[in-house]
Amino acid sequence: MTSDGTRAVHAGLPTVHPGGPFGNNPVFASTFHMSGDPEGPFQYGRYANPTWVALEEAVGELEGADAASTVTFASGMAAVSGALLALAEPGATVVLPSDGYPATRAVGDHLAARGVTVRLAPTAADAQATALRGADLVWLETPSNPGLDVCDIARLCELAHAEGALVAVDNTLATPLGQNPLALGADLSVASGTKALTGHSDILLGYVACADRAVADRVRGWRTMTGGIPGPMEAWLAHRSLATLHLRVDRQAANALALATWLRGRAEVGDVRHPGLADDPAHAVASRQMRRYGCVVAFTLPGREHAERFLDALRLTAVATSFGATHSMAERRGRWPGDDVPAGFIRFSVGCEDTEDLIADVAQALDAALEDRA
User: Fold this and answer.
1) Domain range for residue 212?
2) Is position 101 annotated as part of the catalytic site?
3) pLDDT tens for residues 247-274?
4) Into how many domains does the chain fold?
5) Domain co-membership, 195 together with 237
6) What angle do CA 348, 349, 350 make, to 5 degrees?
């Protein structure tokens, strides 16, 4: 099975046998029967659970890693911090994107307090290449959140590996159906499963997929020690959601490109960004390494008040702080500390609604924002 849709539908399902369940059912257990010396895959609920294993097999298949090299976590930030803290020992040097998710940089502050040297550089134009000398771990986020810049994963992996560094890629926005960092040379693909992977705004989840099992063992050891484990219900719901992943991301990407194209016709809307736009600054690189361009569109309105009038006028689109769901969401990103964006910057997560309805909602909200100003 090589096509994305077929793999998403069948990934991690149980072996077929007469009378067996079609899918994996959640196993609710903190303790498992065990006599004699510890052996077997399931001993205690903080170490492993059959429901996680099935999800890790499925996610690993989509990311290009085996189940033993994929580690699920209780949230995206549990996965991010688990990977960084497990792999960056005191005295190490870590390179982070200066324009990536602010909470990742916050983990960088924690690393710095533990004696790790942290360097920051932006995503665009592969600027992190200037900070690689002597690095031990390089963290890429492409497309970046929220600015939607893109870096050349294969090129930066080659340069980082020449320095002896591991490379991790935050694959949250792209999803494993949008790009496969491990196939491009990365050592780790990390993501928040809270977003497009599960896609219904009802689960917190994260994962780390590794090219090397020894690296995965270090990350898994950190998870076991800290207890950042996913619940079996969350793992089961996440696995259940994978069957529609290709349908959702295809619809979202098509809607996002349609909305981004339409927004360029509005005089009050500036700096429309989406990697799928042919003349977007990120498109040339994105088109080489991405199969789908994601659900997020970024644009800037003339100031905070204008942006808030626009958001208040939306009817179909929710005002919320996430992305990747079946329903559209938007927010003024400047309301959060850490994102260096203009006051009127909007991050718009495009859902699976009918394209005409979605654009009509945005159009009436933009019109209302102009009228209220007058």
Assistant:
1) 4-242
2) yes
3) 999 999 999 999 999 999 999 999 999 9
4) 2
5) yes
6) 105
